Amino acid sequence: MIALRRVAQEPLASGSVALVGARLLSIMGGIVTVSIVARALDDATFGFWSALASLTTLTAGLDFGIGNAVRNRIATSRAAGDESRAREAFSAAVLVVTLLSTALAVLALAAAAGVRAIGWVGWSSEQQEAIAVTIVCLGAFQVGNLAQLALYARERPVLVAALEVTRWAMTIPALLLVASAGGGLLPMAAAYFLALALSVLAAFPLLIANGHWGGLPSAARAWVVTRRDIWAGVGFASLQVVATLVYQTDVLVAAQLTSLAEAGDFALVQRLYLVPATLMFAAATPLWARTSAEVAVGNHQWARTFAARAAAAAAGAAVLAGVAIALAGPWAVEVWAGREIRDASLYAGLAVWLVVAVWVMVLSVVLNGMGRVWPQVRWLSVAVVVKVAIAWLLVERLGVAALAWGATVALLPLAWSNWREVRRSLSQNERGAREVRS
């Protein structure tokens, strides 16, 4: 009980509220951004800009999981009172990720220039320049994202939320300025991606000001320090890949198995349910670093109790959100997009999916904080196979609602596995801690 009271006084709640608020602002900022760019560019150019903008989510795992592995290393080192080790882990990762991002950026720039030179693509000079700017900015984003993960590890989610707000405070005025000046694709891409990169790179001054930076080590020392997290990094990178296949391919599957119109309908309805899912994931994010820290000091009872309460609370909130969207969704879609979509089975399937997905996400955050990644990778891989199989068998006959229900069924084994893994891992750790004390 003492541990639970101590934890209640910590800024978990304030961090969650800040991240939810920032994520809401981010959603609105994205809507405004698309509106500005769509009005400033013609249809074809806007489509090209949209393709570039979609690359942001695809680059998040190109550090090969080093960022998330070091995130855990920093949190556990701090919990053990070893601040110098936490600083060294971060500094070494910065050098490794910087070299890695630079190498990947150079390869991407060379590949883009090469495919254009041999005539495989018909990009104009402006499109080629926009691609180059995007690649450079995303390379910088990769390095800055590592600093942002360090803020998470140090349980400073309010600062992360402030950086996200700063991003949109820079992005929207910059895009409005470019649009008012009649700028085309290149200045639009530069404004968008430069704001993205600068907003995460701003985490470095915050870390330095608080004494969390020890300077860059030598390349040899950086490798010695970072290689202990390579296997964990591979796990996190694998987790990101399979999670992307599970959570972000539904529309692509629908487009392959049905008409583009039906796929568009599915995407519109799914977006309604993704809003509460995104907000609840943001609220749960501070649990990652806290779990790492509490388990590192042997406070397994707190981790187990809080994981159960957080998962149950999130699932309960998801039930309310799912029911509300199922009831009001057809009206909301009609007002928002001017489309009449009244497939009750689709809304119900996505409502159930929301509950299961939120349960999985919260427990995944806890497991990530414990470094328990590979069981998630295995069951997410199973989920990909199950989802695709159900879609292939049923979508053509029953419509896109079958995809929603199939995605739900596919997550059920993972929901069970995550719960079992949290309980079992924490129990094993607690027994081990007792044996060491005795």
- Poorly predicted ranges: 1-9
Rough shape?
A: globular
Average of per-residue pLDDT values: 86
Give the structural class: mainly alpha
Proportion of strand residues: under 5%
Number of domains: 2
Q: How far apart lie the N and C ends?
A: 22 Å
SSE ordering: HHHHHHHHHHHHHHHHHHH
What would you report as the Rg, rounded to the nearest angstrom? 22 Å
Task: Give the number of DSSP strands.
Answer: 0
Number of helices in the DSSP assignment: 19
Which features characterize this protein?
438 residues, mainly alpha, 2 domains, disordered N terminus
Describe the protein's architecture and organization:
The chain is mainly alpha-helical and 438 residues long. The chain is built from 19 helices and no strands.
How is the secondary structure organized here?
Blueprint: H1 2-8, H2 12-40, H3 43-53, H4 55-58, H5 66-79, H6 83-117, H7 125-153, H8 157-180, H9 185-201, H10 203-209, H11 219-226, H12 230-247, H13 250-257, H14 260-284, H15 286-296, H16 300-337, H17 344-370, H18 374-398, H19 401-437
Helix pairs in contact: 2-3, 2-8, 2-14, 3-9, 5-6, 5-7, 5-12, 5-15, 6-7, 6-11, 7-9, 8-9, 12-18, 13-14, 14-16, 14-17, 15-17, 16-17, 16-19, 17-19, 18-19
Sum this structure up briefly.
The chain has 19 helices and no strands.
